[in-house]
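Quick start: read one record
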Amino acid sequence: MSARPTAGKALRLGLLFAAAGLALVAMTAPLRLAPEDLRAVYAGPPETWPAPEIDPGVAYVELAPRSLPPRPAPGSAAEARRALGERLFADPVLSASGQIACDSCHNRRLGWGDGLPRSLGHGRQEGPRNAPALFAAGAGLPLFWDGRAATLEAQALGPMANPVEMANADLGTIPPRIAADPAYPPLFEAAFGPGPVTLDRIAAALAAFQTHLDRPTRFDRFLAGDSRALGDLELRGLHLFRTRARCANCHFGPLLSDGAFHDLGLSFLGRGREDLGRYAVTGLPEDAGRFRTPSLRHVARSAPYMHNGIFPHLPGVIRFYAGGGGASARLPAAPGPVETSAATPSPLIRRLDLSPDDIEALAAFLEAI
């Protein structure tokens, strides 16, 4: 009877050593692994996967499924706020012209963006930036490409006042316009209780709606233990994402974002589309050219990409990073600290040796997250 446990223990140890050996091979020579071997090293929970290739100083958090906020109970005040926010989000009454709604630039059928490099607003004016996707809007990441809003309530008022977007010169004119529609006062009372329609209540309703836009992904299922949620090509892309492609230095954790700001070499300093990003908010020279790391959840649905929408497809984004980022700045003869910073990409951006097959695998993985 004692031989059987001993044999079973030996078998378990053998399997453990085999998995460890495959993980070591995956770290040192990932492209030599057959699909079934790569699948074996990613069969367990993320803490058993091959170690990611992360630079010193990066506060990496392992990839994990996002815990989505629960939908409010039917009939509750919270659900009334969410439903009111959904209605307001689609109503152009929020704009001075009565023609621009939130969903003009954040359309659910276009990945909560608008499919344009840069959004069109009041009087068909083109704004300077791409409309960010909203899937993770309520997750606590900085809002806007330059992070100028910390909460959804604060963010909601920005487009309403922007002369290029909704163009309300006086935000105080918005509540009376909404209250004049007889359908709205009862909805506000159900959501907030007795009281007038106010900007604070409008912003709170919009925030409640945007908190619940995210949905589970195939990658969430894979992370939760469904090993067949990713195909072989996508799995190879996952491994590259965490290792040689260096994506996980900025895109990690459940939200696939570090919540920080980085200079990718796309400030276009001294050129027609100059945008110094975070610097306009903080006034700190070191922030010149830095933009928020967006969440990559549902990224395949939210083209085009980057703060100015210059990349229409994901393979182009991957090739951009493989090339070491951008070199868009045009420095003056005697650059100061701001110009120097705007022309200095993040040290996390490096040239990469990625083959066309690698790019295909990475793009396939991004389609699943």
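The longest strand covers residues 261-263.
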